[in-house]
Amino acid sequence: MNEPFKIGRSRMRAAIRRGREQGYLTYDELRDALREPLGDVDALEPVVAVFADLGVEIVDEAPDGNLLFGPLESVEDEDAALDEFAAALAAGTDDSRPSADLMRAYMRQMGGAELLTREQEVALAQRLEEGLAERLRAMALCPAASAYALELAARVAAGDAGMHTLVVRAARDEYDEGDERPAERPEFLLARRRLARLRSLHAQLERALAEHGIDSETAHDARAKLTRAFMRIDFLPKVLDEVAERLRDLAARARADRGRAHTARIESEAGLPVAELEAACARMNIGETKARRAKNHLVESNLRLVISIAKKYRNRGIGFLDLIQEGNIGLMRAIDKFDHRRGFKLSTYATWWIRQAITRGIADKGRTIRVPVHRMDALRRVNRTSSRMLQESGEEPATEDLAERVDMPIEKVNELLNLTREPISLDAPIGDDEEFRLGAVLEDESAEAPFDTATDLALQADAQALLADLDPRESRILAMRFGIGMNAEHTLDEIGKEFGISRERVRQIANRALRKLRAPGAAEHLRSFHDS
């Protein structure tokens, strides 16, 4: 694997301008911009390709006259080009051409997004909130949405799921050991009261529909109350997504069959006329589109922030593209949580979420054997403390002192320090000539020692020779009784069934055979096995 090139931003900026003016750059000029000896020119392919996208050709020597390109148009954002070079180098140093191609395409697309001012961020955040609010209002107009939400609430009431899987307020709470039971906390009690109110109003609507009809004033008033109750509950986004999908499915079924009987069934399930259901779904889709476009704009305008943070976490077991992907997930999560009313920019708020997502991704996917995230957090704490103690004393701290400083048992500190060991393949080559594999030189603790194996074989051979001096039936019975030359010993009953005699007769034959073997001199040479 090649070492990554270092990019000098001021030198590279000058190289971009020079290449823009003359239409080409020489490899010597590129070497000066990278502050690296050229070595393998193939390693520079990602950078050469990025320059080609900018209309600048990399040549061995400066051409005569104006043979290549004329003066190029100015590059609007040189910082974006510099980021593209840095990312192309980071992806290209692992000799992975497909990775470099993907990175260049990603950087080109990212470069088209402009950075946002504070006012633009606020406007987009407001548009995102407006879109989500429009979707919620349209969704709440459909009694079927309340019915679907109450189905999920029934699972919570039955104990199949927790309240944190249903409403946002409960999901944001963290409970420490020793706190009151979650069911008794005010946030949960409020959520349960509002769900109970929603359930009661939904039952009233069903009675109004049954007694007065779907177009009656009573049903209309009941739907209005149900709408207000639904909007007061802060459902999780994933719950609202599931409800929206089911409403769309209901509207699609209504469009598929306009027959009177089918329409009546749909209206009974939806709790309102089909025309109003379709209108509500249309408004819901408009709100979703508005929110999605605003969120995408916020995401695309902050992708450079993700790359700048991801660069700091290279060479930790995850490829650069995967680091960017994890960081983008954190960015999207930050946008979901962002509150523009607090007065700070999205980039300030999103930095923590991006770092958290990247470090979690490294902890989950960066090791051959996954280590839980909380264990990695504890390990980082131990390592930071160890570094501080090393700076203070000038020598590596003892495990006992380190455990005392971090207030952990010595056994736990040793266990955390052992987590840093990476597994080694048994097929890993060893030696200068790499002729042998690691697995060939490791001791197999389950294997018998060669001396013991040879002794057992000699003992079996001598025992078989002794049995050969006995009567064939005696030899067979004795071999079965003690498992000589067999996988297991046999009981008297099993031997008796084999020979068609009683177990007592088997015992007598075995005893007679043993007396013969105990005769003086018959088995004297076996004493050496007993002594050893």
Number of separate strands: 4
As an assembly, this protein is single chain
Whole-number total of structural domains: 4
Please name the fourth-level CATH homologous superfamily of the largest domain: RNA Polymerase Primary Sigma Factor
Rounded mean pLDDT score = 79
Number of helices: 25
Describe the structure.
The chain is mostly helical and 532 residues long. It has four domains: 9-111, no CATH class; 121-298, RNA Polymerase Primary Sigma Factor (Orthogonal Bundle); 302-366; 450-531, Orthogonal Bundle (Arc Repressor Mutant, subunit A), CATH 1.10.10.10. Helices cover 66% and strands 2% of the residues. The protein has 25 helices and four strands. A two-stranded parallel sheet has the order 1-2. A two-stranded antiparallel ribbon has the order 3-4. A hairpin with a 5-residue loop joins strand 3 and strand 4. The two termini are 57 Å apart.
List key phrases describing it.
25 helices; RNA Polymerase Primary Sigma Factor; two-stranded antiparallel sheet; 2% strand; mainly alpha; 532 residues; single chain
Helix and strand arrangement:
Elements: H1 9-22, E1 24-26, H2 27-34, H3 45-53, E2 57-59, H4 78-92, H5 97-111, H6 118-140, H7 143-157, H8 168-171, H9 186-212, H10 217-231, H11 237-256, H12 260-270, H13 274-301, H14 303-310, H15 320-337, H16 346-365, H17 373-393, H18 399-406, H19 410-418, E3 429-430, E4 436-437, H20 438-441, H21 450-468, H22 472-482, H23 492-499, H24 503-517, H25 527-531
Helix pairs in contact: 1-2, 1-4, 3-4, 4-5, 6-13, 7-9, 7-11, 9-10, 11-12, 11-13, 14-15, 14-16, 15-16, 17-18, 18-19, 22-24, 23-24
